Amino acid sequence: MSIQNAALGASSITTDQPGGSSAPAPHAPELVQGTFVDLAGVTRAKNVPARRREVFAKNGLGAPKVWVVFNADNNFAENDTFNVTGDLRLRLDTSALRHLDEHIVWGPTNLANQDGTPSKYDPRTTLAIAERRAEEAGYSAQFGFEFEFLLLPESIADERRPDIFATPWLGYGAQPFIEQDDFFADLTVAADAAGIELEQLHTEWGTRQYEVSVAPDTPVAAADKAVLFKLLVKRTAARHGLRAVFSPKPFPDQAGSGGHIHFSLTKLATGTHLFSGGDGVYGLTSEGGHAIAGVQAHLAELTAILSGSPVSLLRLQPDTWSGAAIGWGLENREVAIRYAAATLGNPRGANIEIKTGDAAANPYLALAGLLSAALDGIAQSQPLFHPTEGIPASFTDEEKRERGLVPFPNDFDEITRLFGESKATRRWYGDGIVDAIVAIRNLVRETYGDTSPEDLTYLFRHVW
Fold first, then answer.
1. CA distance 180 to 183
2. Please, what is the end-to-end C-alpha distance for the chain in angstroms?
3. Among the CATH numbers 3.40.50.300, 3.40.50.2000, 2.10.110.10, 3.30.590.10, which is that of 130-459?
4. Which residue in 166, 193, 264, 395 has its CB near the most CB atoms, within 10 A?
5. Which stretches make up the GS catalytic domain (predicted)?
C-alpha cells in the first residue's frame, strides 16, 4: 500500500461509498481541511481554499518542529531537539480526500521534512510501514473502531456537574435513542457521504452515552476513518445544539468512554483467517494464537498509546467492562483482549477486540503497535496463555499464571518507564517517537501529578 500524494481532478472529487460505488460531490468544495493527529492524540488542523489544494499536497503547510511534543493542554515538552527553531511540513494526501459537507473536503496529512521526505515523527507513515511489513510477511490486517461518546446540550457542556446526570437513564434503551434520533439520522447521512460505513448505533450503559461502530478496513484507511468519524460526530452534534464528548473520563463519577479496536488477520497466500478454522482453542489457527499472544505480551507498554491520556487510567478500572486485566477470553469484557468467534452472529468472522483503547489514543500509533505486536508473536511463535472464562479477580494465583492474568499498571510513571524502556516499541515506532512521547508524559506528570480527578476530568473534557 502507499500513502504517497496523488493528484485528483480539480473540478470534482469523488468519494468511495459503502459497497464500492462512487458518487461525485454536489459541487466543487470551497475549503480543504487537512488534519494531523499529534502524539498526545489531539487532532490538529490546517485549512486552505480549494484552489490551493495542490500546494497543500506538494509543498505542504508549515508545522513548527515543536508540534512533535505538543501536549493535550497546548503546552510543549521543549528540549534541545524540540524548541522554537525548526520547521516541518504537513502534506495533504489527496488520494484519501473525503467530504465533510458540500462546502468542505477533508484529508489526512503526513508529517514531512522540509525536503519532502517523511518525518520520523509521523504517526501515519509509521502505520503505513507496519502495514507494509505485514504484507511482506504474508498477512493482511483489518481494523474497525467502536467509539463511545457523550452527547451533552451545548448550553451546559462546560459545567462541572450538569444536572442531566440526576435524571433517569436507560442503558441500551430505546427511549434515550429516540431523544437523539434526528442527530443519528443526520450522522448516518454524513457518514455515507464521506464513504464511512456505520455498522451499529445505540445508547450505552453510561448516562448520556452512545456508541457507534465503524466498519473495518485496512490499517491506514481504518485510522483515517477514525479521525474523520470523530469530526463528523462533532460537526453533526454542533448543528443540533449538542457537544460530543470523546474524553475517556469526562466526569469523575460517571462511566468512562472507550475507543475499542477490532482486529483480524488473513494469510495472503491462502486467504486463511488466522482467528478461525484452525484446530486450536475456539478454532484458532496456530498463527492466530501466536498473534494474540504477541498482543498480550506487549499490552503493558502499549498502555502509553492505547490509554495514554492524563485521564485514561481513571477509566481503566476493574468491573467496568474496560478490560482492565491483561489477558484474553471468549466474549469476556473484563479482560483486555476479547475474542469474538466466527459464528452466525458475527458476520465479519472471528476477530479480537482490544477493550483498553480509548478515543484519546492516536489511531495510527495504536494500530501500528497492535499490528506489530501480533506480527512479533507470529514470528517468535509466542505461546498462547489459557483463555480467561470469568471475572479475573475470581481466579487463584496459579490460575492467573496459567492465563497470564495481571492487572494493568495503574501508575502513570510506571507506564512511561515501560514504554520508554521497551525494545519492542523502539523497534516499531523508532527512537524519535518513543522519546517524544516519554517527554510529553513527563511534562504531564510534572504539570498534573497532584491534580484531583475532579479537576483533571474537567480540564480535559473537550480535548479529544
1. 5
2. 29
3. 3.30.590.10
4. 264
5. 123-464
